[in-house]
Amino acid sequence: MNVDKADTPNNAPDAPASSPPTGELTSNSTINEDLALALLKNRDLPAGDLEAIHKNAAVMKSRKVRLALAAHPHTPRRIALRLIRELYTFDLMHFSLMPAAPADLKRTASELLVTRLSSITLGERISLARRSSALVAGALLLDKESQVWKPALENARLTEDAVIKALHRPHVTPAFVEAVCRHAKWSVRHEIRIALLRNAHTPLARALEFARGIPPARLRDILHSSRLPEKIKAYLRKELRGK
Q1: What mean pLDDT is predicted for residues 116-135?
Q2: Domain for residue 34, yes or no?
């Protein structure tokens, strides 16, 4: 009887490639970037497998793998911190915004970015101002270049507290203060108006506008500790007496 060649073992279809079973990875396991990234999507991947990926020199050349490994919830902290410190500027920014990354490590990434701000280019600071975390955007409000602090002021992640902290800094520029005074979003916030009434660079017209919305007793307290010029404070006190 003739045997069909298609039924012989030598002609059987190849078995599909599969990833190593979970928990059986070693540093010598045959994995590539795609397989490593697929494995790292498993949020239950054990620490042993994560360490094995980290020890695989070939696959760790991939920036995507380094990011995914640093962000994995079971990656040993010593490994995650080492990876974060080695990330490039925009990989750090990306990591700090990853929803799945542990919150404390995202803050570490943002703090590292802040320490690097003085050594990166104007173009990089502008990009970070537009897209970075609240912590980094807040730090960039103090940049001497308006090309940087203006987009930082528009960053959707920027918080009210960060704007207030910037207004309280002694070396904040008059241009920045005036921009906050005119800003459609920030100038209407009550606590920001109080911070502006304490700032030496707030123009008289704006100080008068903000003061009118504050109860007299509260305004007296604000003016007592305000760095506004004495002429402006005197004018505001006169307005108070007229109420």
Answers
A1: 97
A2: no
